[in-house]
Amino acid sequence: MAISQQAFEQYTVAFYNLENLFDVHNDEDILDQDFTAQGRKQWTPQRYQKKLQKLSEAISKVGVLQTGKLPAIIGVAEVENEKVLEDLIQQPKLVKGDYGIIHYNSPDERGIDVALLYSKKIFTVQSSTPIAVDVTMPNDEPDRTRDILYVKGFLSGMPLHIYVNHWPSRRDGADSTNEKRVTVAKQLMDHINHVDPQNDRTNQAKHLLEGTNIIVMGDFNDDPENDSIRNEILPHGFQNVTAPLKKFHRGSLNHNFKWNLFDQIMVSDSLINDVPDALYFHQADIFDDIMLRQWKGKYRGQPARTFVGKTYKGGYSDHFPVYMILRRN
Predict the structure, then answer these.
(1) I need a labelling partner for 2 at 20 to 30 A (CA). Which of 111, 180, 200, 275 fits?
(2) Phi, psi of 236 (to 5 degrees)
(3) Residue 2: inside a domain, yes or no?
(4) Domains held by the chain: number
(5) Is residue 285 a contact partner of residue 301, using CB atoms and an 8 Å limit?
(6) What pLDDT, in 10s, does the model give residues 208-235?
(7) H helices of 200-323, where?
(8) CA dihedral in degrees (48, 51, 57, 62; nearest 10)?
(9) Range of the domain at 241
(10) Using CA atoms, how far apart are residues 219 and 238, in angstroms rounded to an integer?
């Protein structure tokens, strides 16, 4: 049952890896040939529309039990371009949210980017920029990966800095790629320290409009206990509000029958506060409702994916969304 809106002012902030949200057109500048009708995935307009319908249905239900309304902010990953996001927010389940889009094309070879969807009635954008990431290791060829998206604005009148991430994958092995994710974490912190040189993100006693409130969200391709998160971000004024959600039997994605929590949300200490009239972190969760799960077979309970390899399954995504509730008394 949704909590009465007379009791609290509440907003859902979510992150969702959309698993290759590509349109059906071939873009010669990126490696998207698989996602065409003639490509390996046989990606047809009908399959694309079904994907949009399912993703919009999932997003429309994230946090609704707690707030009774659509999410205020949704960070997303694995989107091809701004057009697919425009198609997504025009789906019947989301169109009433009156969402805006912040997206930049990144240098990723596959053409997958991060982006931010936001309720224009609740969140006011001041500025945004992509943060270029260099993860080229010594003696390696240049490694192109996703930019980090930085957005500055006001959520219901409270200043907020948002970073949307999709860090280098573990495709070549977790240990051999660990340094790349640590490198991205360091570059992220360099930007945060530039934005917040006085370290006001750790100050919980500031007036409503004076604190530096930061949200770091994304698919980090690392778990909460890994070096990039535990050593490079959390000691510098952040709390991982999603970390307690990782269990042996629960996570945001499943690989080889092992749960991981690569999708995470971290907030600055300033959002763990009791400042009058300020928004504060209330709770976090994984939206792993039965509707998003495989319901039979050996993968029962895992995310219902769009593809397994090149086999079309027609599901939502290989990740579950994660989210948090910000509350104001």
Answers:
(1) 275
(2) -110, 40
(3) no
(4) 1
(5) no
(6) 677 799 999 999 999 999 999 999 999 9
(7) 227-230
(8) -130
(9) 9-328
(10) 17
| Helices within 78-163 (DSSP H only) | 82-89
Tokens 């397994």 sit on residue: 308
Dump pLDDT digits (tens) for 140-177. 777 778 999 999 999 998 999 999 999 999 988 999 89
Q: Is residue 1 part of a domain?
A: no
23-54 b/e (C-beta count within 10 Å ≥ 16 → b): bbeebeebebebbbeeeebebeeebbeebbeb
Question: In this structure, are residues 150 and 112 in contact, taking their beta carbons and an 8 Å threshold?
Answer: no
**Which residues, in sequence order, are CB contacts of 138 under 8 Å at separation 6+?**
none
d(CA 117, CA 132): 20
163: CB partners within 8 A, 6+ apart: 131, 148, 149, 150, 151, 188, 191, 192, 214, 215, 216, 217, 218
The answer to whether 308 and 49 are in contact (CB under 8 A) is no
Report whether 19 contacts 306 (CB < 8 A): yes
Residue 195, token pair as written in the block: 């934005």
> Residue holding tokens 């992509």?
130
Q: Is 230 a domain residue?
A: yes
Tell me the CATH number at 263: 3.60.10.10
pTM, two decimal places: 0.95
